[in-house]
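Hey,
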Amino acid sequence: MDLPAPPAPHGDARPLALVVESETGPRIETADRLAGAGFEVLEAWSALSALLQIERHATLRLVVVDAGLPGAETRFALIHEIARHRPDLFLIALSAGPSPEPGTLPEGVRFAAKPLTPALAREALGQLAD
């Protein structure tokens, strides 16, 4: 597993984010975009590793999940599980596939096409700062 990004200069606390993506390249790209926006970033490559990270890190604020994780029952199964257990988290579902039908995602979950854009990463940081 890759290491989290280094702490921000001057001791400023950065919000903690988790990227859940089975493919290494897209996971690193998403983590880099979040770190560039101002997040400290953890990475997970499966639903199980994501749930363990979420359990271990009570200060987690944002989770970005690949909607098409291998082994999931349905396309957005992990997002639904996270939303049930940690409704305090800001969740973004990324997908290379079609947009979900209305009502498919839990309320408040943001959907975006892959890859995560720097603008969306900055927007997520701004929403957490409010």
